[in-house]
Amino acid sequence: MISRDIYPYFTKTKLNDSKELMINRLAVLIISIFVTLMVFFNLDSLILKWAFLSMTLRGTVIFTPLIFALILKDKTPKNIGYASMIISPSIVILLSLLNITYLDPLYIGLGISTLMFLWGYVTKSNI
Hints:
- By secondary structure, the protein is an all-alpha fold.
- The chain is built from 5 helices and no strands.
């Protein structure tokens, strides 16, 4: 997703195979470093916490954009989808790392994503 969808969209460039491979490798390196730091700072956590976070991230990134893409196919701006797929999981990760659990981060992420899509649908504006 990063090398085929996100990077070309924001840089407005078409990637050749070697540049796409470099971006894939760089993304894997950055994500691996981030995950390693998360593990070192959470050595006393349970695996179940990370399993729930994994499912929550999948839900926030895929569920709402997919529903809106299927139901309101051409009526929501494409930028809202990209922003939703970046902002809602980022907030979920932040809430999980800060251990703010008044409400399950899944519901917060889905709510933020839904509000973003509804705002884009009603105002017909891009971000």
